[in-house]
Design goal:
single chain
Length: 563
């Protein structure tokens, strides 16, 4: 299995090299994918809110209290755990340099000093038989997802795409998913990666309560698109917890994770290569004068595309943006109103419960509503551009539609896997929506909570209708206003990312098509006698690419990958 992907990919690269003059990006992308496969590390980040028990769980698993368990949110680092004969801790700084420390810090005081401010992530080697037996899996102790601190958001960026699988750690005491963890899980669901759910602190809950919590959280993960492959319970005093975690990790096969991680990207590049060769073969049957006319049409289309993109950008900054802000902020307000009774009951139970429930409602509605609004906007843009650039017998509409497939995925999930670098950039934008929009709303709740809670100070004023009226007339409208302002700040950035994605995809496809036609014209002029041989060669290459694609699809769909 070690060469399951590299073999077909190497053959694809060999075919693509013959078309570097007309489609240079394809061999570049394939070579980049080969490099990534050869340097693949199967990271398994443990994610959860602060104090969920991630570090304690790993300490129990390692059999030694080596990871700090009381770090303040401002000081935590993502820490990769690797097997080594000697214990060491290597810190990587923001500029890429590294420094070694003699032992892992054990508390917030030890790590909260000026020397750690530029630290980005850590690599801890440890002579543990459990680490050695993982055969290439690299657990990562992650900072809590609920701080909103840029340093911790950057830590998630680093491992969001690199994660081959994820361990979701939730305290059984919480009873549900924290809003910030749910937001992160939405990003993880964008990738077809295995998820392990670990409920910690189970010794503090009754068996019946644990059953309900497990069902609730596993159900929510499934609804988000990342159903847990394994669900396990952990307790600090349970000696079997470490063995259960080890068995769960050993069910993850590194080679299967590698196929899951890369097969889609390779198939996308292979499909593009096949389409390019088909274009060459099809165009080579025409005479040079017809090719000249078609090249001229593509050049005109390229210019029309630029003009149309400029017009669509202006539309985005006008009515479409206004409509998006109105719709999303209105949906947030309506969702709060629909849940008024639920929120009142949460408020009676306590400020923290009320705040968590409100933030969860806002997070889910904001994400869904924003995706829907952006999808409608982009569909409108694509339709307009097809109408504006579809003349002169050239199927620009088809090119735009094909080139929009990547961006449509962006709208549906606020991410894309067609190119690693673009995926990373767009998933960062998606997470920026969460941190830039949801966190200010949570802060708003903190500001207004005292005004709400004061109605409970006097028994005569503990009237359900009075509190609900205060929520409806004061808190919900203010949250709507703040939600709209937050969206106004972040929406231009999101729109520019989407337009840039479309622009790059469309221009690249048009340029590759134009180059293919020019190549055919020159081939016809200079090598007329070799035309039939060239046809046969292209046909053979197309068949070769199709065979490789089938091999990769079989690997991707093999039972072991999805077991």
């Amino acid at each position: 299995m070690s060469d399951a992907l590299t073999g077909p990919l190497t053959r694809l690269i060999g075919i693509s090299k013959e078309f570097e003059s007309t489609a240079p990006q394809i061999p570049n992308d394939l070579c980049s994918q080969l490099h990534q496969i050869k340097n693949f590390s199967a990271f398994v980040p443990l994610i959860g809110v602060f104090s969920a028990g991630k570090s304690s769980l790993l300490n129990l698993w390692l059999g030694q209290n080596i990871l700090p368990v009381d770090q303040a949110p401002t000081t935590a680092l993502a820490t990769e755990l690797r097997y080594g004969e000697q214990q060491s801790l290597i810190i990587t700084l923001a500029d890429g340099t590294v420094r070694e420390v003699h032992y892992a810090p054990q508390n917030a005081l030890e790590v909260n000093n000026d020397a750690t401010q530029e630290d980005q992530f850590a690599c801890l080697t440890f002579p543990s038989s459990r680490l050695r037996d993982l055969r290439g899996l690299i657990p990562v102790d992650m900072p809590g997802v609920d701080s909103g601190i840029k340093r911790h958001v950057d830590a998630f960026y680093r491992y969001a795409e690199r994660g081959a699988a994820f361990v979701v750690v939730v305290s059984a005491e919480s009873g549900t998913l924290h809003a910030s963890l749910a937001a992160v899980l939405h990003e993880i669901a964008l990738q077809p990666v295995p998820v392990i759910l670990v409920l910690t602190k189970c010794d503090k809950s009754t068996p019946e309560s644990l059953e309900n919590v497990e069902e609730e959280i596993a159900g929510r993960l499934s609804d988000m698109g990342c159903p847990p492959q394994i669900v396990m319970r952990a307790s600090r005093n349970d000696q079997d917890t470490a063995e259960r975690l080890q068995n769960a990790l050993l069910q993850l096969n590194v080679q299967d994770l590698k196929i899951t991680h890369f097969a889609g990207q390779i198939l996308s590049s292979a499909s593009r290569l096949k389409d390019h060769i088909v274009m060459l073969r099809k165009s080579s049957t025409q005479d040079p004068s017809a090719l000249d006319a078609q090249i001229y049409q593509y050049e005109r289309a390229y210019q029309e595309l630029n003009d149309s993109l400029a017009r669509q950008k202006r539309r985005l900054s006008g009515t479409l943006r206004q409509e998006t802000m109105d719709k999303v902020s209105g949906d947030v307000h309506n969702a709060l109103v629909r849940n008024l009774d639920v929120l009142y009951d949460c408020l009676v139970q306590g400020e923290d419960i009320f705040q968590t429930r409100t933030a969860a409602i806002i997070s889910d509605v904001y994400r869904t509503s924003l995706n829907q609004a952006l999808r409608v906007n982009l569909s409108d843009i694509i339709m307009n551009m097809q109408n504006e650039t579809g003349g002169d017998n050239i199927d620009i509409g088809s090119i735009l539609q094909n080139g929009s497939q990547t961006a449509v995925l962006v709208l549906e999930t606020l991410a894309t896997v067609s190119k690693g670098s673009r995926w990373y950039k767009l998933i960062s934008t998606a997470l920026a929506v969460t941190t830039s929009v949801i966190n200010p709303i949570v802060e708003l709740l903190i500001i207004f909570l005292p005004d709400i809670i004061k109605f409970f100070s006097d028994p005569e004023e503990r009237k359900r209708e009075l509190v609900k009226q205060n929520l409806l007339e004061k808190v919900f409208p203010e949250i709507r206003r703040r939600a709209r302002e937050a969206l106004a700040d972040i929406l231009p950035e999101i729109e520019l990312e989407l337009i840039a994605s479309l622009e790059e995809e469309w221009r690249t496809r048009i340029e590759e098509s134009r180059r293919a036609l020019e190549c055919c014209r020159e081939e016809k002029r200079q090598h007329e006698a070799e035309w039939l041989a060239r046809q046969d060669s292209w046909s053979a290459q197309i068949d070769g690419v199709r065979i490789i694609m089938r091999e990769i699809e079989q690997l991707q769909n093999s039972p072991t990958v999805h077991s």
